[in-house]
Structure formats: C-alpha cells, structure tokens
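Homework help thread (please don't just give me the answer)

Our assignment gives two proteins as sequence + structure token strings and asks us to describe the second one. The first is just a warm-up. Here they are:
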Amino acid sequence: MKFMKEMRLVFRRLQVAGYKLQVTSCRLQVTSDQLIRTGNGLLATGNLKLLFIVCVVLSFSSCQSKKHELPIFGQREVNGTDTVYHKIAPFKFVDQDSAFVTNDTYKGKIYVADFFFTSCRTICPIMKTQMVRLYELTKDMDDVMLLSHTIDPEYDTVALLHDFAKRLGVESKRWHFVTGVKDSIYKIAQTSYFATAMEDKTEPDGFIHSGAFLLIDKQGRIRGKYDGTKEEEVNRLVGDIKKLKLE
C-alpha cells in the first residue's frame, strides 16, 4: 500500500515535469513535448527510469484490479452517467425461528442463496452438505450469510425447518431457512435469482429446481452462480467471496 502511494506521487511529479500520462485498459500511455528536461529537479535519465517504473507498477495494478473483479449478472440500464444493475426484488419470508426475513436482513451483507425442499431425495442432500461446508468455511466472516428457500412450503412448515436447521447444527443469525407463499418463492427464484424452482409432477419428488448457489453482494446484485453439488465449485465460491469482500 505504501509503495503504491509512492508510485502515485511519482506519477504526479512526472505530470508536473511536462509528461502526459494516462492509464487505460491495462496500459499506461506516455507523451511529452520535451524529453530532455533540466532545472526541474529531475534529470532526463531519472525521468525515463521513473517512467518505466510507473508503467510497470500502475499497469500491473490496473490489470490486477480488472482480473479480480467479479461480473454483475442480469440486465442493466444506463441512466445518464449512472448504470442501474439488476437487483434482488423486495421479499418477505418467515424463517425457522418464526422471524420475518427481508432484504433488510441482508443489508450490508454478502450472502449465498439457494432453493431446496426437505423431502428431496435427489440433489438436495448433496447441496446441503456443501452449504454446511460453506457455513463452516465462512464462520469467521461477519459480513457473510446464507439464505435457503423451500420450494415446498405446504410441507416445509416453520417447525419442520427449525428441526431441519437444528439437525444441521446451524444458527439462524447466519443461515436463514425460509418459507412463504409458494408463488412468491417461485417468482423470486425465476425473476430475481434466475434459478429454476417449480412444481413438476413428472419428477420423482414432484418438484424441479436448480442446484445453483447464487452469490449476492452488499448491494443486492448477483455476482456469481455455482453448482452446489460439486465441491470444487463451492471452493471457487469461497474464493469469490473473498474477492468480493475486497471491493
């Protein structure tokens, strides 16, 4: 950090010396009307060395910043100089402790969302094993939470979700299991999280849903989508959470 501040001071000194510098798309462009200068406290040779150092350090910094930036999912609208991104729509559900859970519950938090049902015999048990792993791997991250929506609210009552969470050994302050009006859950899955969640009588358990884990940032925007049935995908998710914490 101190080194970068010093490099930026050098950057400004060169600008004062008559050099025009601009960092664009991982490149540092340099132009000057006078390559040889004296009397300004910087010899031409020193200037050239400084230019080389600034090119390397600031260009590397610019490229690294872009490399680690996570994408933002969904449509976006340009409003003048501002860009409005897709966000999770307002919601209000009830969790395993009979408490209301809304967008405000996750205000200023990074969270991971998924869709499941407790009687699922296919991918849900695998997903919950991986979500428990995620819960443990992020236990020291105070700004990271989890959110699991049941897609079978008629069967998955508050009491049943409470017992389910208890069996997993997790706390509601970090991981909310929510239920609510079926149509509201399906709608938010499909239109906000871009995830599949619906009834399908042709399926063995009567439902079809995505096995995705969705990474949501502190502004309510989707920043990543991962296969919740694969350990390597969840490992990648943990890495992306760490990147997101640095934004």
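The one we have to describe:
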Amino acid sequence: MENNNIVIRVATAADKVYATTITDEMGSSAAARGTGIAKRTPEYIEQKIDEGKAVIAITDQNEWVGFCYIETWSHGEYVANSGLIVAPAFRKSGVAKAIKKRIFDLSKKLYPEAKIFGLTTGLAVMKINSDLGYEPVTYSELTQDEAFWAGCKSCVNYEILMSKERKNCMCTAMLYDPKDHYEPEETKQYFKENVKGFERLLRFKKWKLLRPFLKKDKPETNGGKPKSFFHHLFHL
C-alpha cells in the first residue's frame, strides 16, 4: 500500500535496523500518555520480523513511520495485534489505521481460525478496531494463557490488574471472532452511535480503578469541598 510516499508492508530482515527506534518510541509514547505498555526489547522486535509476523511503514526515503506485530496465545487459538506505534511526525495522518488494517489482514491469513483481540486505553484505537469488526468484550473472553498476562508485569497498571483478579483494568478489551462476529459496517456504526458512552466508560474506569491507589493523605478538593463523582466522570 502506498499513500503520500508511505509504503506499508510485511517487515523483512532489512527492517531490523529500525528495532531500537521502534522500542524507544514505544516507551516515549507510553510515558507521554501516562498509560501502561508491555515493554519490548529490540531483540524481541527483530524476532517478530524474522518470523514474518510484523508490519512496518516507511517512506520512499527509508524513513521509519510506524510498526505493529502479531503475537499468538493458547496454541494459536488467540492472536493479538500488538505494539502499534507511529512516529510523531506522521500521527493523525491515517497511517495508524492503515497499519492496523494490514496487520489484521496478515493475522487472518496466517491464523484464519484464531480469535483476534486487543487491549487499549485509547478511544482512537477503539474506533480503528471497530472499523475492522472488533467488538468490546469482557476480559473473560480473552486468552487465559499465563504467558500473555505475564507480559503485563512491565505495565504501570499491573497492580490494578491483579487487584481485580485479571477481570478488569485501565484497558478496554476488544475481540474479532471469525466464527461469530458482526460485519465491520455494523461494529463501525455501533461505535459511532455509542462513542460518548465509551468516552464516559474510559473516564469512569480511570476514576474507579485509580482511586484506591491515590494517596489518602492528600484528598482532592475543590474550594475546600471534595470533588464529586461527576467531576471525575466527565472532567478527567
């Protein structure tokens, strides 16, 4: 695929030169957003490239633009499209959506029977997933493979996840089941009709799940009065 001199394709061995740049940007992006991310090493990125389970976006001048890779769990029953990252200069250009579409198609080609899932803290990624046919689900519908959840240990929100017995966390779970799913136009329309509700859900989760971890000796106040539930729900 080409768009404004950007090529999005399956990564090859030559693309391993971008591995450190990719992992550095993953870390910087997560820190800037204040959200959690499972940390990956350049060697791990190189491994995914060697396995043919990664998609990369570069310009025709070989400037790195974006990246995403495939992980498999429960003996291939579940597939995750992980590590989606776009270089700052190319964000809000539609590149992230194009990368997600390419890695989604690659996942279906390599694992046609697998359930494809993702975890995200961002509304933008939720929209992209909905456009592809993903549906919001509970954590119980995801893989229960211990190796998958172990990958969350490096996330800043891991303590929250474990306190909820892996039933909830800051991320929203989304799933595409090839054997039982709505068509992309249906999930796209559903997201459009309920986007305000999803926004409130993300705010509510942030308020509800983080609240027990706030310092109790420094209560939030507003003119000497405690901030209301609705303040947290709508003004985070």
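TA reply:
I won't write it for you, but here's a hint about the kind of observation we're looking for: Residues 216-222, 224-236 have pLDDT under 50 and may be disordered.
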